[in-house]
Each structure stands twice: as C-alpha cells, then as structure tokens.
Amino acid sequence: MAEDTLPELAQGTPTPDGPMMARPVRPAVTLRSFWGNRSRPEGTGTGIVIVGAWGALVLGSALYRSDFLSHQTLLAVTFTMAIVGVLSVGQALVAISGAILDLSVPTALILPSWAIVSLLGQGINIFLVILAALAVGGAWGLFNALIIVFGKINPIIVTLGTNFAGAAMLNILFENAQTPISSGLAKWGQGKFLGLPNIFWPMLLVVALAGYFVPRSRVGRHMIAVGGSSQAARARGISLRKTRFAVFVISGMLSGVAALLFTASDLYFIPNDGSNFLLPTLATIIVAGIALSGGAGNLWLVLLSVGFISTVTTALAFYGLSDVWQQPPPGAILMIAVSIDGYRRIRSRR
Amino acid sequence: MTLSSEGVIGAQSPASARQGWGRFTELAGGAVGSIGITLVVVVIVGLTWVGGSFFSKGNMTIIGQAAAVPLLVGTFSGFALLAGVVDLSIGSNAGFCAVVFAYLAAHGWGGWQAAGVVLIVSLAVGTVNAVALVGFGANPIAATLGMLTVLRGLAYVVCYGSAGGIPKLIPGLYSFTNREAGPLPLIFVLVLLFVVGATVVAMRSRVGRHVRAVGGDEVAALRAGISVTRVRSAVLLLSAFGAGLGGILWEGQLGGATNLLGTGLEFQVYAALMIGGYSILRGGVGNPAGGAMGLLVVAGVTDIIDVKAVNTYYTNVIIGILLVLVVFLDRLRGGDSFE
C-alpha cells in the first residue's frame, strides 16, 4: 500500500487541505518516480516477487536435475495450470468483490462436469454441451447468490453449507463418470496447439478477458467498488444485489468452463475429485496478492501465480519425492502466502 | 472513547443480573433455545421413525461411541471460535495424531510415552497456527486450510510403508474406550462431564470472560487490559491439543488408524457448532453446552440415517441445509447480516 502511493506524492499530487502542498512541487526525478510514472499497474511488486520465486525454483530444479528443463515439464506445468487457473479467476472475482471466499468450488466443478458427461453420452452436439456446461455452472452460482443476497448470510457460511450438501448430493446421484473416449471433447483434451496442451489456451483467454475487462467494464468496476466498501458503493448508487448476482453467476459460469477442461482431460472421475481443487484456487489468488479483504487485486497476476504453484507440484517429482509428498508443499505455500497477506494488511494499517 | 469502552463493559454485566423467569425465556429464545428445540425434534423423529429401539442400549452405545471424539474436539475448538478465530485443521490434526500414535505404538513405544509425544506434536501444530494467525494476522480460514492439507499429506507420509493404515490395538486404551457406565459408553459420559466443566469455565470464570471479550470486541478487550495476542494463541493451542487428544482416543476406539481418518471432521464439527449457536465469523457468541447439543443433533441425524439404511450421504445433505437455515434464523434474531 505504502509503496503504491509513493510515486504519486513525488509528483506533487495536489491535496486540497495540505498547507505544505500549497504550491506545486517540482517532482524529484528518482528511479522510483521514473518507473512509477503514468500509473504503474497494481501489484507490480507482487508480480516481481512471484517471478523471482518462480525463477529461483526453476533454476534450482534445473541445477538439481538437468532434465527438468524439458518440453515434458512444460507440458505438465501448463496442463496443471489450466483447470486451476480458470477456477482461480472465479475465486478472484469473489474475493475482489468483498464476498471473501467461495468454498463451494468442488461442487461447482463436478456438477457441470457430470452434466457434460451425461449429455455427451447421449450424443448431444458439442456446442449445446458447452452451453449446458455454462448454464449449469451459472445456475449453481445463482443458487448460492440467491441465498447470500436474500438471506443476507455471509458467503463463506453459505458456500460451506451448499458445498456440504451439494457434494453429498453428487455422491448420491452418481458413483463415477466417464467422458466418452470417442467424443470430440476427449480427443480435443488430449491434443496440443503451438506445443502446449489444448486445455491451456482457454485458460489463457479467460485470464486475459478478466484481466482486461474487470478494471475497465462497468460491472467489473462495480465489483471492485463493492469489495472496497459496500457502504461507499451503495452511496454511489451501485446496486449491491445486482453486483453480487453478477459475481456469483460469472464465477459459476467459469466453473462450467473449468468443467469442460476437466472432462476433456480427466476422462474418468468420481464426485469427490472436486475437493482437490479448492486449496489450489485459494493458494493461487492469495499468492497473486488478491486481498481477501476485497477491493484490490490484479487479475493478470493469477497467471503468474498459478504457473508458480503448478511448477512447485511438478518439480516435486524431480526431487525424488514419492507421490505421498505431493500434498504438504502446496498447503505450506498457502499458509505462508496467507501470512504475508495478513502481515501486509497489518503493516498498511499502521 | 471512554464512553464506548464503558458501554461495552457495561453491556456485559446485565447478563448476570437477569434471573428467574426472565433468564429462562432469554435462554429459550436464544441460540441455545433453538438448538434445544432442534434436538427435541431430532429425538421425536428418531422415536417415530426408528421406534423405541432408538433409545435401546445398543443404539445408545453406537451414538455415544461415534459422538465422543467429535464432541471432545468440538468443545476444545469451540474456545477458538469464542475468541474469534477458526481452526479448520482440527480434522486432519486428529487424524494425523492418531496415525502418529499408532505408528509409535507399533514401533515399540509404550502407550503413555507415545501419547505424550503425540500431544507435543499437536501443540507444535497449534504453535504454527498461532504464529501464522496471531503473529502475522493471516486469514484464519485460508491459513488453517493450508495446515489441513499439510497434515493430511503428512498422514499419508506416515502411513506410506503400511498400505494406508496402521493397525495397532493398545489393550489398555481399547478396553478403556469400550467400557460402559450404565446405559452409555464411559468415554461419552466423561466427555459430557468435560462439556459441563467447559461451559462453566467459558461462561462463569475470569478466563472465559476474557476469551469471550476478545472474540466479541478486540479493541474493547485491549482497552480493558486483556492481551488479545495471548488469548488467541492460547485458544489455538487448546484447539490443537483437543485434536491431539481426540486422535489418541480414536486410535484407542478403532485399534488402529488410517491416513483417511478425520477427513471432513472439521466441517462436520463446525457445522454442528454453528447449529449449536457458535459463529465461525464473529467471536463471543455461543457456549460449550449449546455446541454439544449441536453435535448431538448431528450424531442423532447420522444415527437415524444409518439405522434406516438410507444412503449415508443424506446426513451431509441434511447438515448442510440445517447449517444455512440455523445461521439464517440467527440473523433474524439480530446476528450479523451480510450485504
């Protein structure tokens, strides 16, 4: 926070009631003001830190095992990034808009996945299946939003409850599901484009669209305003209800997109597979510096952050750690990232 | 400034002034009242749907055995909720502790020594939680979800060499956990006594007042000279310690431990505690007795579903709906509303 405001001060931004600022101050040309000119994008510092950590990780792994720097690793990392990346954008929108966290990610992913697989099994046209996936995902978001908005209940509790009930319902509805291997979706999911997995590209598109439109579009700016201060947003005539509905429906539709990538790449799944995706989305948005207190965050950083976290899990295999060691490191990263997030908040308050 | 702090301190004292009938109606109308009514409903449903055998000795033993550990773990972590922090790592912590206990016992350690080491491990987990949450001000839900994953992963690591589970029956502990006191299992009775003690500590003692003050209004508690840091760290250690204790008892009951033990316990416990009048988002509300009733409601629903041989996943569907419903009712009564 403090860092972000410094360049503005150096340029002598006029403050109405500051006697010291009565006459315009000629900006002192420092490196910071030079670089910080013309509104440095939000979260540049966080981005540099992620890139640094990522670089160190890649360098360290490459020194330890020279075969780490291979096309195979790149494929594995980008493959892992796809589903988590799309889900994280949805989670990020929830956090930015002040709804804190959506704990219903597992159900939000598996419900549309099940719909996709069922429809594909009946030989329905893929375009209709895609529409259905978005509709089912959006409907789940709408369901959560209805309870949050009309019940005026905190989203964490609502999504805790709906996920608890929803995951159980999924287990009642089906035991396991399989994407038809001959379907176009399954073939597309195994394919590559420009040397990277096909499922990577929709994720890139989702992050790009969100990164571009959230700070620029009307609804996106409303989300940021509501997350910053719901009272202030309301005073400015922004409808809290409409914004909450928009956030959860968009986030739900994104989980529909993630479900398409999931069913295209994981041809066989069980209802409980969704629970593997909650923690990575939280870790991703927190490492990306998206404040859990709402109102701040740069969605482009989701791309760096999900890349870093996917590289960690991929790199573990190269350190000779068996599969059982896959779980603790992401958990530890989440704890450390949340601690840094908390520390920053305390420091900025002082 | 002085006015507001006096106001807050003043607001706490009338509770003890209310007595007799007024106090009774206040209790019946409050969170504890509604959970009491829910519990009665569950018992009536049990009696009409399952029949008289719902209260048979066999069924009481099943309910008591199944409810003892969640009740113990939930009562400990209820103190964390009371102080305004939530510890989602309790389920994994209990499972991890059970696995470590079984591992040590299977590798020639004596029961008491192994238990001592496990409790130290659980306190170490609590210390890490306290450093992250209190020292760095990390978001409790996200940070302890990280700890949950770390501990679940470590449970897999401990069980790696033994196909996901360590069978180790500890005769003394096994017979203790299976002993009976009248119509109920002994450990269930002991845990109920502990709940009574915890309720007295939480609602009537100086320590309990401090915990509730920190959860209710951090700033006011600081002004009243209570160390928020110390209280919050202490309750996180307590919560982890409860999970360790629960893990040891679990291992005793089951005669072994698997790497999946305790998965989802945290959600079940917190859903039950919230049904029982606690809140995971604001401290200072709820009490151990109400929380215990919430846990008994969940245990009762689970048992009815089991006895009727309905798909056990319906238990979670009911708990999920009950959770949202109860929080909604709490809001209608003047709880925090979210906009």
Trace the largest sheet of chain A across and list its strands: 1-4
Quote the distance from N terminus to C terminus of chain B: 28 Å
What's the N-to-C terminus distance of chain A? 11 Å
Question: What share of residues of chain A is helical?
Answer: 55-70%
How many strands appear in the DSSP assignment of chain A?
4
Which architecture of the largest domain in chain A per CATH? Answer: Orthogonal Bundle
Strand fraction of chain B equals under 5%
Mean pLDDT metric of chain B: 85
Oligomerization category of the chains in this entry: heterodimer
What's the SSE pattern of chain B? HHHHHHHHEHEEHHHHEHHH
What is the arithmetic mean of pLDDT of chain A? 85
| Global morphology of chain B | globular
Structural write-up:
- The complex is a heterodimer of chains A (about 350) and B (about 350).
- Chain A is mainly α and about 350 residues long.
- Chain A folds into two domains: about 1-40, no CATH class; about 45-350, ABC transporter involved in vitamin B12 uptake, BtuC (Orthogonal Bundle).
- Chain A is about 70% helix and about 0% strand.
- Chain A has 15 helices and four strands.
- Chain A has helices at about 1-10, 30-35, 45-65, 70-95, 105-120, 125-150, 155-175, 185-190, 200-215, 220-230, 230-235, 240-265, 280-285, 300-320, 330-350; strands at about 175-180, 190-195, 195, 270.
- In chain A, the strands form two sheets. Chain A has a two-stranded antiparallel sheet. A two-stranded antiparallel sheet of chain A has the order 2-3.
- In chain A, a hairpin with a 2-residue loop joins strand 2 (about 190-195) and strand 3 (about 195).
- Chain A starts with a helix and ends with a helix.
- By secondary structure, chain B is an all-alpha fold.
- Chain B has a domain at about 60-260.
- Chain B has 16 helices and four strands.
- Chain B has helices spanning about 1-10, 15, 20-30, 30-50, 55-80, 90-105, 110-135, 140-160, 170-175, 185-205, 205-215, 220-225, 230-255, 265-275, 290-305, 315-330, and strands at about 165, 180, 185, 255-260.
- Chain B has a two-stranded antiparallel ribbon.
- In chain B, a hairpin with a 2-residue loop joins strand 2 and strand 3.
- In chain B, helix 15 (about 290-305) packs antiparallel against helix 16 (about 315-330).
- The longest helix of chain B is centred in the C-terminal third of the chain and has 27 residues, at about 230-255.
- Residues about 1-20 of chain B have low confidence and may be disordered.
- At the A-B interface, helix 6, helix 7, helix 13 and helix 15 of A face helix 7, helix 8, helix 14 and helix 16 of B.
